[in-house]
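hi!! sorry for the late reply, been swamped w classes. u asked for the two structures so here they r. pasted raw, havent cleaned anything up. first the sequence of the first protein and right below it the tokens
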Amino acid sequence: MTRHIGILLFPGVEELDAIGPWEVLSFWTRGFPDDGYAVSTVSRDGGPVECAKGLTVSAGHSFADAPEFEVLLHPGGQGTRPMLTDERHLAWVREQRAAVPLMTSVCTGSLVYAAAGLLDGRPATTHWRSLELLAELDPTVEVRGEDRFVDDGDVITSAGVSAGIDMALHLVARFAGTSRAREVRRGIEYDPQPPI
């Protein structure tokens, strides 16, 4: 039985927050189908979404026709700011928490999780510029500002933007083993050595 990983898209989503993990997870799931996972994107209505820096992407599913997810990834970006007080979206996030075994976030996606009450008493991280806001949204969160990602069992949060790639590779290792994750890392030629 195929297990589904969903990546949420929404207006103002930070491109690399969603596309970085997509690259990792789609390389894995398409290259190694016997591992039993598939990845797709989902948005509220399933239509095109304009991202934070102008890239337009189309979601594979709407909320109404999405498969049951084993993992849901909530990216960040400027589009998360209105979500922090959007009761409709926060209610949807809580519904997913009740049904989805593993909730993950990239960057300021964790702020939405905090606003929805998903991080109560948990360790978590976010983009370095939003660490104080994370603590304000939920003072019970154990903010881990130095961590690239934080795996707390059924919730994983990652730091900003490119950290989502690391978190996605961690997911591959968690579900298919370290050797598979290394194959994926090599396949996408991800070998961070900043030139500056």
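now the second protein. again sequence first, tokens right under
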Amino acid sequence: MAHNDYETLDVVLVGAGIMSATLAVLLKELDPGIKLEIIELMESGAIESSNPWNNAGTGHAGLCELNYTPESADGSIDIKKSVTINTQFEESKQFWAYLIEKGSFGSPKSFITSVPHLSFVRGHEGIAYLKKRFQALTQHHAFAEMEYSEDRATLAKWMPLMMPGRDPNEPIAATRVLGGTDVNFGAVTKHLLDHLAKQPDARVKCSQKVTGLQRNPQGWRVSIKNQADGSHREIQAKFVFLGAGGAALPLLQLSGIPEGKGYGGFPVSGQWLRCDNPEVVKQHQAKVYSQAAVGSPPMSVPHLDTRVVDGKTSLLFGPYAGFSTKFLRHGSYLDLPLSVRPSNIGPMLAVARDNFDLTRYLIKEVLQSEEQRLETLRGFYPEAKAEDWRLEVAGQRVQIIKKDPKRGGILQFGTELVAAEDGSIAALLGASPGASVTVSIMLELIRRCFPEQSKSQQWVDKLNEIFPAMGKVLASDAERYREVQARSDELLQLTEKEAALA
């Protein structure tokens, strides 16, 4: 292809993970005539953060994650974040249920499983906090089915693997919600990409690297190198989405948009202990989250999880944090140093200054021995045997560093959408609860970057068809919440949870 010979498309999406796949399918549903391409660096989609072994697979719904319900200075529990995440996950379920109902999305059994979500605490302080959290959450209709117990016989039924061998005098408590889920986000992504492949004017190209982003009056000229044969091509696109996980930050910097200035990335790698021994696995049917150790960051919240991947059930415990200068698991050690810019060096240095605790925590985690990792696991599962568990390396997470007027820079745990003022390009930065709330994030992107079309009757009608109720309605209207949840659960075959768990 000659240098000035290029193809014209409406939308280019970089990265074939759950974010780009979701956005591409949503856009094709809203406007079947849209022309789009997903560009993926690896040989197939869902290899990085969307891969089922690179994330916890928790259908994050705020049911068990204690870091989403912080205790305020006056001792009250703030449940706002849990309610938001819960209703956003219900939006994701509505989208998947809609695609299943259309008959173009494979079986829900391949990607979603009913798994109770439990919060587990040890010690009097932990119990006092959990009790207050339970009282605050159960006043909201989204958490009305939550149960609380300190009774050891009850706890032994809820988490049979975790009780034998425990000190009988240790104060412990737990909450349980039967309606939790385990989600294989890699399988969801593959279903989305397969669905997309059947649509006209939609394609996914793998082993392709974006080497240039040039703004012009028509949108963006995207330069692409084929990693397999070294050839180059160019696409003219009206809109570009940078949904490439850890690689989104360098691409945002490559675009040069002023809205991207000042952002930096702090990469954190993760490790898990994994157990495939069926005798152990069958004794634990739950995702059990606890409190992070004092001084450790929110992404270090320990949990013992049931995982269902490709029809096989395993247990996962962790995460154990690590540090690498790579922005992707398959990235380069130069990713972090090459991301430093005059505009973000101030915020990055401010974060380094203010986060000595985090640095110390990461160094301690990296230097942990196998025995020390097992010791942490035994806080959950006292009779754990070393031979049943093996260490798995998880995906890279790049936490956001952004400018802050007071401190110079802050480290942010979560996700952030950065878009150009004219809506022609957007990037998604950050990590958890990411995959669970992808649909809500992409709906926000559509509202911001396609403002005119979003107001058109065609798009409004289609969105109402896909989403019987949006998050704000679900958060305030108990009856609507239950209706919509029941419909989604039926289509996703998450009904009769008790029977499924027996």
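hope this helps!! also noticed smth abt the second:
The first helix runs from residue 18 to 30.
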